Amino acid sequence: MSSKIRLGILGGGGDSLIGILHRVASSMFDQFQLVGGAFNPDLKESLAFAEKIGIPTDRIYKDIDSLISEELKLPEGERMQVISVLTPNFLHFPMAKKLIENGFHVICEKPMTTSYEEAKILEATLQKANTVFAVTYTYTGYPMVRQMREMIANNVIGKVQKIDIQYYQGWINPVIHDPQLRANTWRLDPEKGGISCCIGDIGTHAFDMLEYVTQLKVGKVLSDLNYVYEDNKMDVDGTVLLHCTNGVKGLIRASQIATGEENNFTVKIYGEKAGLKWEQENPNYLYLLQDGEPLRVLKPGHPYNSALSLDGTKLPPGHPEGIFDSMGNIYKGVAKAIKKEPYDHGEFPTMVDGVRGMKFIECAVESHLKGNIWIHINE
């Protein structure tokens, strides 16, 4: 019998970008085997999709309840061990909660839930179950992001004194200006997407990245959000000022109406001795900036990088690695945790990150709605 971890997937069917990203990532290190799931609310669509990607259809289910019920009938050595939740935001919480309660490990897309209250309930559920839970803040899997984290931790840049993170996209620009599209896009529907579109979708990536690479905690936030139209209930652009717990100040700039931008995620951390800059659209370059010194460019795969960075590098220097590899590194870390093998806590985002992300979203929206005031994020 295969020693691979048996994986199921909820959502991610059809032409879903996130679906193929997870499927490819899970296959990278020969740790997981996709055995079934519910890829689409329509069972016929799910069955057709399973046939298309070449997996048996005997474990394709009409919904999560059927999946749990039927899988638990199987011997423990045959049933699915971990389920990836790739559905729209409003389904994350109920699905993840049921899965945890029934003993499954979970890999969940972000934002983890649609509210902080749900996130805390999920956290309490996980504590009782003692299973593995990962949130796919995908960009933490890039080798040079991990290198940035290790360099900051090892005091290469000195005490952090300025944080500037930008995440600009333009994809929603044609949607927001069309009243019909605006009214029928699930990401702009609070019932399906939660209280925030831009901050909830990409702003939370920026927030998690900040806390991941610096290992600081944001203490309070002040935000100014942009909804563009009065009938639009969810932000599509925003700036959030930040105070970290040790006095470091910074900002997050996020937009989905930055016309012409694709996926411009830029992370800049400045310390007393040096600065570091990383750009998602050119992820194999980590820039080290020092006063009076030439710009240095660090690249993945070289022995000067940290063990955490090298563990996430699959190819020799000079061979580009990208978003699939980044997600693959997260799956690799989850596999180690499920198998109870030693792993670095920087290998995959956890429930703690998901809860922090939901708290950030709610505080950012609250700050804006109350007239752009400081809101404490720490309890």
Question: Could you provide a short overview of the structure?
Answer:
With 379 residues, this protein is of the alpha/beta class. It has 13 helices and 14 strands.
Describe this structure as you would to a colleague.
This is Gfo/Idh/MocA family oxidoreductase. This protein has 13 helices and 14 strands. Helix 10 packs across helix 13. The chain is α/β, with parallel strands linked by helices and 379 residues long. It is globular and about 65 Å long. It folds into two domains: 5-138, NAD(P)-binding Rossmann-like Domain (Rossmann fold), CATH 3.40.50; 142-317 and 350-369, Dihydrodipicolinate Reductase, domain 2 (2-Layer Sandwich), CATH 3.30.360. The chain has a nine-stranded mixed beta sheet. A five-stranded parallel beta sheet has the order 2-1-3-4-5, with helices on both faces.
CATH topology-level name of the largest domain: Dihydrodipicolinate Reductase, domain 2
Would you report the number of β strands? 14
Strand order of the largest sheet: 13-12-11-10-6-9-8-7-14
Distance between the termini: 48 Å
Helix content: 25-40%
The helix/strand series, from N terminus to C terminus, equals EHEHHEHEHEHEHHHHEEEEEEEHHHE
The outline comes out as: globular
CATH C-level class of the largest domain is Alpha Beta
Overall CATH architecture of the largest domain: 2-Layer Sandwich
Radius of gyration: 21 Å
| Total number of domains | 2
Content of β-strand: 15-25%
How many helical stretches? 13
Category from helices, strands and their pairing: alpha/beta
CATH superfamily of the largest domain: Dihydrodipicolinate Reductase, domain 2
Mean pLDDT: 96
The low-pLDDT segments are none
Major sheet: size, sense and barrel closure?
9 strands, mixed
